[in-house]
Structures are given as structure tokens and as C-alpha cells.
Amino acid sequence: MLLLDVNLPDRDGFEYCRELRSQRMFYDLPIIILTGQSQLDSKVHAFELGADDYITKPFEARELKARVLSKLRRSGKANETSFFAGGFRVDFSVQKIFSIADDEKETALNLTPIEFKLLSHFLQNEGKIFSRQELLDLFWADSMYVSKHTVDTHISSLRKKMGPAGASLRSIFKQGYRFAAGMGPKTKSHFDKQVDL
Predict the structure, then answer these.
(1) Residue ranges covered by each domain of the chain
(2) Which of 8, 17, 123, 147 could join 85 via S-S bond, C-beta 3.0 to 4.6 A?
């Protein structure tokens, strides 16, 4: 949450709001503009730049508190629908995972429903190892005719669709699978053994 006064001593608050919204890490940051400008054009301008609310001075502390709490509640619910991890953005609202390039351009991965569930699970639990049996229990519990090789097949397909980042979805010898961003075969740790399937 950011309470942003338009009349900053060293810069224009509106311009600062625009700069924040242009950066990916501040996409979901709730911003409330505080200003003595009550003109409609000023309010519209603030919202166009990405502000979430606009409070005109002078204001009552109770009103400010109520607006802040409201924005925090809404922000918390919104953030539950998507998250960033390991060079990807997972969006549960549309059931898609996007790879993020160095220039921040997003490209949707062409995943099956089970691949979406698998990858989002690994991204949410980055660095944690899951055995084949654990993955079967999580995603194939209702299927009678599956084997542990089912997991291997889906992981192999998922790696290909992830492109170069697929090397970060690793087979850990006699343990299972783990996603660790930047941990391809050339950067494996001393206690891991890479198994290519």
C-alpha cells in the first residue's frame, strides 16, 4: 500500500505514480493519491495513471483508514489469482502460465489442464522435492490405471513446452522432481544427481 501525496518536494506525484505502474514489481501495489486538488480532471488523470483511489485534502482520519483497509482487502483477494515465480507468471483466473522474457514480454505456454496444475504446483513450491507417488496422489488420485511413469511422461512434455527454463524442472536421483530457477544441469549442486528422462 502506498499513500502518495501529489505535492512531493522533489517531484510530481502523478509522474511518480506513472513510473511505479510501469514496473512489473509494482503492478499490484495499491496506490491512494492524497491531494488538495479537487478538480474532476485531476481525479481522472490520477486514475488513468493507475491510482486505485483519490482523497482530497482536508480529510478525516477515519475515512482514510476505511479506504486503506478496503483497498488492502481487495488487493489481497486479487493477488490470490496470480503470482510470479522462476521467470513465469501463473494466472489462475484464466488457467494460464506465461513465460517472461528479459524485456518483460509475456508468452503463454500451450499447456494441457494437468500440465498447468503440475507446473503451477512446482512454481508455488519452488525448491521443494516431490516424489512421483506424491504427484500421483495430488493429481491422479481419481485415476485407477496410472503408473509412476505417467508422471515422467508429463514432466518430459512439460519441460519441452517450458523451453530453456525446462532445465530447472529437475529429476532428483531416487527422490523425485524439483523446480529450482536457474538450476539447470550445469549448475546442479553437489548433492543432486541429474537424471534426464
Answers:
(1) 2-80, 92-187
(2) 123
Burial of 135 (0-12, 13-18, 19+ CB in 10 A): buried
Among 39, 74, 69, 73, residue whose Cα is nearest residue 54: 39
Q: Any idea which architecture 2-80 has in CATH?
A: 3-Layer(aba) Sandwich (3.40)
Give pTM, 2 decimals: 0.55
Q: Are 154 and 175 in contact (CB under 8 A)?
A: no
pLDDT in tens, the chain (197 residues): 888 888 888 888 888 888 887 776 676 778 888 888 888 888 888 888 888 888 888 888 888 888 888 777 766 555 567 788 888 999 887 889 999 888 888 999 999 988 999 999 999 999 999 999 999 888 887 665 677 788 999 999 999 999 999 999 999 998 999 999 865 443 333 333 333 43
What percent of the residues of the chain are helix, what percent strand, and what percent coil, each to the nearest 5?
Answer: 45, 20, 35
Provide the 10 A C-beta neighbour count for residue 115.
Answer: 19
DSSP letter assigned to residue 5: E
Nearest to 179 by CA among 91, 96, 97, 77: 97
Domain covering 92-187 assigned CATH 1.10.10.10 in the classification: yes
Distance CA 24, CA 94 (A): 19
